[in-house]
Amino acid sequence: MKISLRNVSKQYKGRGALGKYAKGIYALKDFTTELTEGVYGLLGANGAGKTTLINIFVGILGSDSGTVLIDGQDAGTLGKDFLSKIGYMPQYPIFYRDFTVMDFLLYMCALKGIPDKQGKKRVLELLGIVNLSDAKEKKIGALSGGMRQRVGIVQAMLGDPEILILDEPTAGLDPSERIRFRNLISKFAQGRTILLATHIVSDVECIAKEIMILKEGSLITQGTIDTLEQNIYGKVWEVTVNGEDAARLGNQYYVSNMKQQGERFLVRIVSDMLPASDAVKVSPNLEDVFLYYFRGQ
Ligand SMILES: Nc1ncnc2c1ncn2[C@@H]1O[C@H](COP(=O)(O)OP(=O)(O)OP(=O)(O)O)[C@@H](O)[C@H]1O
C-alpha cells in the first residue's frame, strides 16, 4: 500500500486584533510525503503539528487544502473502506473506567462491525500478545498507565488494520514500560504502515524505518536515521573540560550530553562552529539530530 499526503495545510481560527475570528498561524503547512510498509517516526516538539496531521489523516479534522491518497485514490472518497484499514490510538484515549478490559474491547469490536465470535477470538489473541491475558476481567480504572496503553494498542489492532496510527503512545510510561511498548510496535509492524508521533527520540530510534521531523507545521526533513545523522555530520562535537568550562559551554552552546569523569566533564555539543579549540567532531546520533533542528525550542 502506498499512502501519499500532498500539500496538506491547516490553519486554526484565532481571535484577531479586533476580536473577530481570523485565520491564525499554520498548524500544518504544505505537508507532503509518501509512506509504504514499515514504521515511520513523526518527531516534533510540543505544538509542532503532529496531532493535527494525524487528525486530518484519520478524518477527524478537515484540512484547508491538500489531499490524502491511498494507492492513488482520494481517502475522502473511500469512506468506510479507508476507515476499516486504519487502527488509531489517540494521544488521550478515552476509556470507560467501569468497563472490564474484555467488555471494553468487545464493545470496540461491535463499533468496528467485527462479528462477536471472531471479535472475541481476536481480543483474546491480542491480549496474549500484549501480555494482558490475566487482566481481562479487571476494570479499566484499576489498570496502571502502561496496562492502559496496551489496551489502547489492542483496540487499535482490532480488525487487523493495514495502517496503524499512534499519537504519543508512550506518554506517561516508565522506562521499562516504554521498552515493552516499543517491542510490541515492532511486533505489529510486519506487513503494516505504522505512523508513530512522538517528541521522545528513544521511542522511534531503534524501530523506525524512516523519521520525519516536523517543526512549526512544516516537514523539515525525512529519511532513514543514518541519513539524518549523516546530514548533520560536522556539527556535533565532544570536548573534555573542567567544571567551570563545562558550565560556560552549557550557557553558550546546545549541549546534548554532559558526563562527569572524575573531576572533569565530557561535554557533547551541537554547533555549526567549533565550540572549543580542542573539541573533536563525533558521529551524530538521533538525539543530536533532534537538538539540531529544535535548538532554542
Ligand atoms: N483546536 C485548536 N484551535 C486552535 N489552535 C490549535 C488547535 N489545536 C492545535 N492548535 C495549535 O496548532 C499547533 C499544532 O498543534 P498540535 O496539537 O497539532 O501539535 P503537536 O505536535 O501534536 O503537539 P503536542 O505534542 O503538544 O500534542 C499548536 O500551535 C497548537 O496550539
Provide a short characterization of the protein structure.
The chain is an alpha/beta fold.
3D structure, described in words:
- Residues 3-241 form the ABC transporter domain.
- The protein has 2 domains: 3-229, P-loop containing nucleotide triphosphate hydrolases (Rossmann fold); 233-293, no CATH class.
- Helix content is 33%, strand content 31%.
- The protein has a 6-stranded mixed β-sheet with strand order 6-7-8-3-9-10, with helices on both faces.
- The relative contact order is 0.14.
- It has helices at 50-57, 75-78, 80-83, 101-111, 116-129, 145-157, 175-189, 201-204, 225-231, 243-252, 286-293, and strands spanning 3-15, 21-35, 38-43, 65-70, 73-74, 86-89, 163-167, 193-198, 210-215, 218-223, 236-241, 254-261, 264-270, 280-281.
- Helix 7 (175-189) links the parallel strand 7 (163-167) and strand 8 (193-198).
- The protein contains 11 helices and 14 strands.
- The chain has 297 residues and is α/β, with parallel strands linked by helices.
- The structure holds adenosine-5'-triphosphate.
- The site of adenosine-5'-triphosphate has 12 residues, from helix 1.
Q: What's the CATH topology name of the largest domain? A: Rossmann fold
**Percent in strands:** 25-35%
- Please state how the strands of the largest beta sheet are arranged side by side: 6-7-8-3-9-10
| CATH classification, class level of the largest domain | Alpha Beta
Provide the succession of SSEs: EEEHEEHHEHHHEHEHEEHEHEEEH
Question: What class, by secondary structure content?
Answer: alpha/beta
Family: Belongs to the ABC transporter superfamily.
Protein name: ABC transporter ATP-binding protein
GO molecular function, one term: ATP binding
Organism: Parablautia intestinalis
